[in-house]
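Researcher: Sequence recovery benchmark, item below. Answer with residues only.
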């Protein structure tokens, strides 16, 4: 499964819209702009709380770069979220059905299902060239 990450900036989510397959997990992490001379613990960042509108998931207060929040999406649909402390910060996760890989067995099964037959049913004859006569 592919890893998905949303960065939480001071004023936005990046990306603000993300498409994932059913069963995949998205992780939110704080992304700080560190000013020169300051450490990670004293960087200029506001705390955030990721809250979903249509599912009961909430990150809790995220303050440091080590704070993360993960959600595994098991249902297909659109899931909107926001920072409950900064309500102009909006995001959306679009969950789609997982793509199925085609392999030789699934192709043969589709041929049988569709009853695909060769273009010709005539046997193929092989013409042999004769050796030149001297």
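Model:
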């Amino acid at each position: 499964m592919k890893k998905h990450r949303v960065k939480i900036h001071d004023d936005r989510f990046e990306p603000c819209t993300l498409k994932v397959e059913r069963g995949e997990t998205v992780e939110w992490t704080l992304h700080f702009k560190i000013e020169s001379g300051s450490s990670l613990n004293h960087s200029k960042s506001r705390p955030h709380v990721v809250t979903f509108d249509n599912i009961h998931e909430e990150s809790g207060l995220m303050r440091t770069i080590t704070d993360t929040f993960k959600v595994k999406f098991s249902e297909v649909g659109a899931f909107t979220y926001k920072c409950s402390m900064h309500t102009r910060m909006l995001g959306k996760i679009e969950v789609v059905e997982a793509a199925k890989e085609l392999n030789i067995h699934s192709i043969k099964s589709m041929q049988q299902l569709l009853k695909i037959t060769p273009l010709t049913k005539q046997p193929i004859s092989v013409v042999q060239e004769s050796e030149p006569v001297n």
